């Protein structure tokens, strides 16, 4: 039977790079960024026990009107190793590696990863251009009208990102929420969350092989 736990959620702020170059894949670039009030949230919708050796994560993205599903397989010999397969939705290395690295990190901390989880992703409106939505409502594109928009609007047509680091914010919030669900530890364990999120983001940018050891 599915169980809903609406209080399990995590969010991460966006950021604006004000000095420096592209930092993700070309070390040793240096830059300065500042946080914004825009936040990306991941929250749990349902959870139940899964078959031993499996961790299944379904991700609902209402703003994009998309569903994603991933299945992790845990092999215990000679040491715990995790592999992930995307079973539903368009190809998404950012989501795939969020699941893979978080499951591996949870195993390394003695967590119970054999679960079926449904998560929901919600982004503040500031992460994406709202021009199409305002124009579809017959409204002028002004700061005043933007402030009046209801939260977490579905995207209308092809929209542009606003440069607030939506993929990094999504990654961090999802890793923190999923890690909390798979372990007995709080999502305030910032070192583990940040390390896992950074490793996952590097992998998502490079889109390397979807397998890792729990000791990685």
From TrEMBL:
Gene3D superfamilies: 3.30.230.10
Domain of life per record: Eukaryota
EC identifiers of the protein: 2.7.4.2
Cross-referenced SUPFAM superfamilies: Ribosomal protein S5 domain 2-like
Pathway info: Isoprenoid biosynthesis; isopentenyl diphosphate biosynthesis via mevalonate pathway; isopentenyl diphosphate from (R)-mevalonate: step 2/3
Region annotation (Disordered) ranges: 188-216
GO molecular function: ATP binding; phosphomevalonate kinase activity
Polar residues bias: start-end ranges: 188-197
GO terms classed as biological process: farnesyl diphosphate biosynthetic process, mevalonate pathway; isopentenyl diphosphate biosynthetic process, mevalonate pathway
Gene Ontology cellular-component terms listed: peroxisome
Protein name as catalogued: phosphomevalonate kinase
Organism: Trypanosoma cruzi
């Amino acid at each position: 039977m599915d169980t809903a736990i609406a209080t399990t959620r995590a969010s991460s702020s966006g950021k604006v790079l004000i000095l420096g170059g592209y930092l993700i894949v070309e070390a040793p670039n240096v830059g300065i960024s500042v946080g914004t009030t825009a936040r990306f949230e991941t929250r749990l919708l349902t959870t139940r026990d899964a078959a031993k050796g499996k961790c299944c994560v379904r991700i609902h993205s209402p703003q994009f009107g998309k569903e994603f599903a991933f299945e992790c397989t845990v092999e215990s010999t000679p040491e715990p190793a995790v592999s992930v397969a995307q079973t539903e939705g368009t190809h998404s290395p950012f989501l795939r590696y969020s699941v893979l690295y978080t499951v591996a990190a949870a195993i390394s901390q003695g967590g119970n990863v054999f679960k079926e989880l449904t998560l929901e992703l919600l982004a503040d409106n500031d992460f994406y251009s709202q021009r199409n939505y305002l124009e579809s409502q017959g409204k002028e594109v002004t700061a005043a009208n933007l402030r009046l928009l209801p939260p977490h609007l579905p995207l209308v047509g092809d929209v542009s990102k606003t440069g607030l680091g939506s993929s990094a914010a999504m990654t961090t919030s999802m890793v923190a929420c999923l890690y909390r669900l798979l372990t007995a530890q709080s999502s305030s364990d910032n070192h583990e969350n940040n390390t896992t999120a950074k490793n996952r983001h590097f992998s998502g940018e490079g889109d390397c092989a979807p397998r890792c050891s729990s000791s990685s």
